[in-house]
Amino acid sequence: MLIPCKHLDYREGVYGPDITLETAAPDFPEVRFWQRSPMWTDNGPGQLPNPSKVQFCHKFGRIKGIFQCYNPGELSCYEAADQ
């Protein structure tokens, strides 16, 4: 079982339009992440897009991935949430 960091922020309506709170693949039903629309990811022709699946953290801000805040040791600020 993956344990999220206590600093993750899942407050809906805080991060703007066209961002939805989702769950990860069926193999990881306990993992939640933010799915951002092209409004947030499309940097125009010839440019690499910004990540569409991210986490938001009270300490770190936007994290460019899903699992870094579920795995102790990937980010130094990780503190396990109370289960």
Overall pLDDT, averaged?
92
Radius of gyration from the alpha-carbon trace, in angstroms:
13 Å
How many angstroms separate the termini?
A: 11 Å
Class inferred from helices and paired strands: mainly beta
Helix percentage range:
under 10%
- What is the tally of helical segments? 1
Give the oligomeric state of the chains in this entry, treating copies of one chain as homo and distinct chains as hetero.
single chain
Which band does the percent of strand residues land in? Answer: 15-25%
Shape: globular
- Which consecutive residue ranges, at least 5 long each, have pLDDT under 50? none
Biggest β-sheet: count, sense, barrel? 4 strands, antiparallel
Give, in order, the helices and strands.
EEHEE
According to DSSP, the number of beta strands is 4
Give the strand order of the largest sheet, numbering strands 1, 2, ... along the chain: 1-2-3-4
